Amino acid sequence: MDKLASGCLRHRAPSSKPYTPFQRSPSLLAPAAGRGRSRGRSVSIVVRCVLGARPGTATTTELKGRDDGIGGSFDFERYMSVRAAAVHDALDRALPLGLPERLYESMRYSVLAGGKRVRPVLAVAACELVGCDSAAATPVACAVEMIHTMSLIHDDMPCMDDDSLRRGRPSNHVAFGEFTALLAGDALLALAFEHMARGCAELGVPAERTLRAVAELGSAAGTGGVAAGQVADKANEGLPVSLAMLEYIHVHKTARLLEAAAVSGAIIGGGDDAEIESVRRYARCIGLLFQVVDDVLDMTSTSEQLGKTAGKDVEADKATYPKLLGVDQARAYAAELLTMAEAELEGFDADRAAPLRHLARFIAYRQH
Description:
Keywords: Isoprene biosynthesis, Magnesium, Metal-binding, Transferase. It is built from 16 helices and four strands. By secondary structure, it is mainly alpha-helical.
């Protein structure tokens, strides 16, 4: 297990900051000893909430509570709700109806279908972590969600996973037909980079930061990420798969885009190289954590609970962490990844790190 858990570090970019080995945590409910700050310290966390704000709306939300560094009463549910709603509004404005109307309807059908918005919120939180206002991350947050939505549309198609249900309703290709769904995904990928370039310029983000973030997201969407992971995933269906290959698939297919979301947010926010690499390692671990939890839920939950077809991986004879490790060991690996992710936040301001710390735990504990 230690070799597997440390594997997520093999794929990261070089960093000037050495990594401190993680401590084994026996379960998702038992954080590693010594990780949290003293309990009971009251703080007032002021979160800038200008992401996608409309004229005349409030731009600052006070989220007050007791931050114990692990569970605390930091209002993470409210933080996620405010951020997700703001991202949704920004996406709605970024993608008005146009011609050809059916193509736009197909794009909006999936982009505005809801979801947890983990990736765009991750971009915003990383931007705030390095001390920048969340408004700067608006174009990045939208671009990440467009790329993610593209991957979901394509992933559901008959030539891929052939899934007819997504977020509790018909998949895009079921609702609009295969060729429209395919082109909607392509159009969203192109729009992501156009919107990001134009939006960052309008907000006055330095061009060199925008260019670096564009390169990061481009790599994550293509041969350095989602596309490579998807090819490896399909090529290995029904074949004996090692833990190393399984990790390669999920690092690229799932973790890489989560990583790029956080890294791009930190870049746009003006983080230095050491800060960006800490964010990268944090996000790589929670990206793998997301997939491990997803694998466990696919095996242990119903379609109604998940909002998508449960048991598809088992039916397709895909390699998953529960299949190779067993459910209990997969959960133990998830706990190790959570501990590793939290360790990367220790060098940052505790108040600004609170959303990312809680986001890691949200991913670990999610039920769908």
